[in-house]
Amino acid sequence: MLTMTRRQFMVGAAGLTFTVLARPVLSLGIDSRKINAWAAIDPDGTVYIVNPSVEMGQGSMTAVPRIVADEMDADWSRVVIVPAAPDDKIYGNPGFRNMMYTAGSATVTGYWDTARMFGAQVRRVMMMNAASTWNVPLAELTTEPGMVVHAASGRKIGYGDIARVVELPAEAPAIKPEELKKPSEYRYIGKDVMRVELPSKVDGSAKYAIDVQLPGMLYGAVLRSAVEGSAPTSIDDGSARAVPGVVRIVRMPFGVGVLAETPWAAFKARDALKVQWDRTARGYGHDSEKAVAVYSAAARDLSKPGKPWDSAGDAIAAMDKAAKIYEAEYACDYTYHAQMEPLNSVASVSASGDACEIWCGTQSQTMAVAAVAKALDIPVEKVKLNLMLLGGGFGRRGHRDEEFIVDSVLLSKEAKRPVKVLWTREDDVRNGRFRPLSVHFLRAGVDADGRIVAWRHRVACDEITAFQDPVRYKGGGEKDFLAMAGSELRTYDIPNRLSEQLPQVTGMRTSSLRGIGFGPNKFATEAFLDEIASMRGIDPIELRLQLLKDTPRGQAVVREVARMSDFHHPRKGRGLGFAFVDYSGTMVAAVAEVSVDKARGEVTVHDFWCVLDCGIAVHPDNVVAQTESSIIYGLGLALTERITFRDGQVQQSNFYDYKVPRMRDIPELHIKLLQTPNKPTGAGQMATPLVAPAIASAVAAATRVRLRHTPYISERVKQALA
Amino acid sequence: MAIDFTVNGRPVSVKAPAETRLLWVLREELKLTGTRFGCGAGQCGACMVHIDGERMFSCLMPVSEVAGRKVTTIEGLSPGRLNALQRAWIAESVPQCGYCQSGQLMSAAVLLATNPHPTREQIKEHMNAHICRCGTYPRIVRAIERAAKEA
After folding, report:
1. Which among B29, B32, B131 has the least Cβ separation from residue A660?
2. Residues A36-45: tens digit of each pLDDT
3. What is residue B57's predicted lDDT score, i.e. its pLDDT?
4. CA A117 → CA A16, A53, A176, distances in Å?
5. What's the rounded Cα separation, in Å, for the pair A270 and A537?
6. Distance between CA atoms of residues A321 and A304, nearest Å
7. Do B135 and A59 touch (CB under 8 A)?
8. Which of A260, A262, A547, B60 could potentially form a cystine with A266 if both were Cys, beta carbons 3.0 to 4.6 Å apart?
9. Which among A391, A425, A632 has CB closest to B135?
10. In a mutagenesis test of the B interface, which of A102, A105, A203 is the best target, namely the one with the most B β-carbons within 10 Å?
11. How far is the alpha carbon of B77 from chain A, nearest alpha carbon, in Å?
């Protein structure tokens, strides 16, 4: 509890408030609902700033409060960051449908205006109080970090001292956009700083959900049906019960839960369960290798219109009139997030089942609370969330049903004790929710002058959004944006375009995954453009510059990466490949340099250049770090990572058969930020979609053979070269 | 029966089935949660600890096999103050999600203890035992080189 007197007032139309603490804070964060604010100032000078996002390594726990702090002129050394209460109305991301949802590289860009406005209002209130205390005009006052300054009289007063006596205006001061700081006035924005949680990540003290321990806590393991929607028909738990330390075996709607005194006993008992499953679920029979041909046929059958995603002009009519038509097909396998922290959650349900406290790492605080409330049939106010650091997210932890959190809640309710449910890595893979299999059929029509005048992109893939988030799916016009995003080519000068989805209903568990639809769709479109350039005998850079004729920022990153990589200077035994993306306003261009071992079917990426313009980089070194990260993530998706299904069941288990990049696999990375004075756009996953097409085009340059199916595993490379 | 060993210089006695993996004893019984569970299969290195000065995957190590031995975890790597590696990790802003970094640091410490000035190739070879899904590899290399230079 916050034990202090507080005065609050409403700020702005969004109904946001901030709090000025009149007495020292005894403790914060025990009941985060009490901090209904973006910023609070303690009389001792401590400034509390709310972080509305979750921290999964991307750095927004530092970046968003830095924006608030800059505009309010807080002294960063006195800032304490406080997690926001789970309330979409107050803390929802204006750039993400007003949801508290950390995804899509949307945090800094989505909260940018809000964070600055609230920071500016706090600063203004501090100045108004100083003006009345000193009886001087407001216009004569300025601020330095943590204090108001009256230069004419040489007086200064700290924010903490003002908080002691503050008079809050009845209405929040109105700040005009032009009164916000100019980029030249930023103290923190655009400057590197240590991410606030870094020290805890080098001495082992960082706390993830998996680290939570409660008195009387039991451990849970869950044997989940291999196919979504399947349930046990018979359970033989004799051997499982015999494992020392096992407390109970619990039948669950989708599987069987084990409660035990130790994790080891829970895992052992779970492995000893003998369960028969019904076979009514949709997914049985799904074979991912065979499905490629099915999806391909759907994508290629132009007589069947798909579900439109993006259109401009009249692509079909323009195609008919084109002087020449190019066609190509590409495919991407199912892929897995492989966040380092296997899913887990801790729950403590009250004895009567009418309240619950959870400790978890979710990408959406409000979704987690809602899913738990629904599972227990209690109001959301009765669910207390303790948001932990996330050991990676990558889109896995933002599903509407939050199934891994509900696991712990259901088992705690049964046990009437706190329960930590642990997924093993094998659980995490087999119960994974994957970027779907997709087959892309593309057609491009060029006119007599060689200009691309018609573009059609048909994507056959498992549905994602309908499975991951039925609420947003229905509310958003049943658009499968998680699958289709990136198939639109708005930045390119192509007058007639149509991208459409051929949804494949397979019953597979699917998910957003770093880069969402941009990954597969940009692989297809950028590789196709490279092929078109090659067939027309023009330079791929020149083709992009033509297509970007109305987008100078796009042209700038293209030119810069070409220069940095010395793109037009061929290397012996190597190939260079290029790709570009406008990812939600962030302009990214990349070049890969590869060699191919034809006998082994091995592609080696030696160097990777990437130039990125995300406008104002709030935390430049962190943008570089995220770009390194998103390139390396894309490298795995391009070269090695694949999930396969037989009879609807995942065939992989762990890192020995799902291969992610390691230290020795990493090319030399050459990253450059082109900082421009534009509103910040995303930085967390922007390079991921460029890696697969840049490598494919580099392989084509080196071998004249086009790789069309990610990942480029040895047998595919050998087959393509044969 | 009780199994006696030393953790971070402190003698401990634990009661656990002999085949229980050291990782779970460290984390859940001894509350040393800085050693992480990543794969349970010796594939990712998030669980890396030192046993008698050598690096070991604690997720594979039956607790009975550490009887009488000295175990060091991230909490005992440099208690009270950050060592050169940890400082370099911050200077290079290595961690992202941070989950794998305890293990990475434990491995890096063994490398520098046996080879104070490793080549870049030696660093990559040694650290290839680990997975960092955030892709902090280039910064890990830089941090090890920085620590080697400062030491």
Report:
1. B131
2. 367 888 888 8
3. 98
4. 11, 17, 9
5. 60
6. 20
7. no
8. A260
9. A632
10. A203
11. 8
Partners of residue A421 in chain B, C-beta under 8 Å: none
ipTM above 0.95, yes or no: yes
Categorise residue A285: left if φ over 0, alpha if ψ from -120 to 50, beta otherwise.
left
Mean pLDDT across chain A, nearest whole number? Answer: 93
Distances (CA, A) of A444 to A277, A337, A693: 48, 33, 17
- The single-letter DSSP state of residue A695 is H
C-alpha dihedral sign at A419, A56, A468, A437:
negative
- Asked if A712 and A695 touch (Cβ cutoff 8 Å), the reply is yes
Chain A hits for B105, CB-CB cut-off 8 Å, are 202
How distant is the Cα of B51 from the closest Cα of chain A, in angstroms? 18
Which 8-state DSSP code applies to residue A434?
B
Q: By the 8 A CB rule, do A217 and B28 touch? A: no
| B96 to A58: CB separation less than 8 angstroms, yes or no | yes
A327: part of which helix (H) or strand (E)?
A: strand A324-332
Partnered with residue A257 across adjacent β-strands are A222, A250
B36–A198 C-beta distance less than 8 A? no
Cβ atoms of A484 and A501 within 8 Å: the answer is: yes
Helix (H, G, I), strand (E, B) or coil at A59: coil
CB contacts < 8 A (A, B): 170
**Window B:97-116, CB contacts with A under 8 Å:** 97-102, 105
Assess whether pLDDT exceeds 90 at residue B103.
yes
Binary contact (A389, B98; C-beta < 8 A)? yes
E strand segments, chain B: 2-7, 10-15, 48-51, 54-57, 70-72
Q: Give the minimum alpha-carbon distance from A341 to chain B in angstroms, rounded to a whole number.
A: 6
Ordered DSSP codes for A5-37:
-EEEEEETTTTEEEEEESS--S-SSTTGGG--S
- Please answer yes or no on whether A262 and B20 come within 8 Å at the CB atom: yes
pLDDT above 90: residue A271: yes
Buried-exposed string A50-80: b where 16+ CB fall within 10 A, e elsewhere: bbbbbbbbbbbbbbbbbbbbbbbbbbbebbe
Tell me the pairing of strands A344-349 and A79-83: unpaired
Q: Is B42 at the interface with chain A, CB within 8 A?
A: no
Q: What confidence score (pLDDT) does residue A89 get?
A: 86
For A703, phi and psi rounded to 5 degrees? Answer: -125, -10
CA atoms within 13 A on the CB side of A185: 15
| B130 vs A contacts (CB less than 8 Å) | 662-663
Interface test with B, best of A197, A202, A424, A425 (most B CBs within 10 A): A202
Residue among A231, A198, A339, A144 nearest B143 (CA): A198
All residues of chain B having their beta carbon less than 8 Å from the beta carbon of residue A628 are 135-136, 138-139
Q: Looking at A447-562, which runs of residues are DSSP E strands?
A: 452-462, 496-504
Q: Within its chain, how far is the Cα of A80 from the centroid? A: 25
Which of left, alpha, beta for A601 (phi over 0: left; psi -120 to 50: alpha)?
A: left
Residue with tokens 């100019």: A182
Q: List the structure tokens of A239.
A: 């051997």
pLDDT of A15 over the 90 cut: no
Q: Which residues contact B95 (CB under 8 A, 6 or more apart)?
A: A57, A198, A201, A202, B89, B101, B136
Beta-carbon count within 10 A of A33 CB: 12
Beta bridge partners of A579: A590
pLDDT at A236 over 90: yes
Q: Between A365-376 and A403-415, two packed helices, what is the crossing angle to 10 degrees?
A: 40
A441 min Cα distance to partner chain B (Å)? 31
Nearest-angstrom CA–CA distance, A378 and A393: 27
